[in-house]
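Q: Joint fold for the lines below.
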Amino acid sequence: MAAVSATSVGFQRSLNQSSRTNEAAEKYSRLRLVSRGWAKTKFPSLRTSHFHVYCAAKPETVQKVCQIVEIVMGLEEEFGISVEEESSQNITTVQEAADLIEKLVQKKPE
Amino acid sequence: MGGPKPLSGMQKQVLSLYRGFLRAARSKSPEDRRQIESIVSAEFRRHSKLVDRKNFLYIEYLLRRGHKQLDQLKSPDTLKLSSLSLRNLKRP
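A: Joint structure:
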């Protein structure tokens, strides 16, 4: 009997954790796949290591940052400049890109 | 301004590696360059879907591996990059 009650306490704990993790995942990223691996024949496994939230990076973010890198690389080649990584992070508009290019082209020793 | 969320250190490292590959590709012939760019961008995008974003250990491993591959690619002796898919090999 003692074992059973201990079991239920443990289970409760792992459930709590799962809902907390879900919340966090939803907040920061799209939840991709949740696998709850408990053995088929036994009572749900209580080891928290069996609960695993898998989430890949947000596809929009990946697409966006990869495209920014590609665009900046293209601009570098076109204008013969070298954009530092830090400053390329701050480009949000075309105007900002144009301003940055202008600044770098002027700085470039001819 | 409310600009984009700042990237984490690791995200910056990954992007910097991507940039390094694209830069290294410039030194190859136009045809090889196109091929390198397509393989590299496909690989980065594939891993972005495949790898758990919290799996820092594995991402660090991939970063180290990527840097080694980049060093090889940078060498003028390396002419091009090729990839093969094991799934395609099964079919005769």
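Q: Anything notable?
A: The mean pLDDT of chain B is 83. Chain B touches chain A at residues 1, 3-4, 6-7, 11-12, 15-16, 18-19, 22-23, 26, 41, 44-45, 48-54 (CB under 8 Å).
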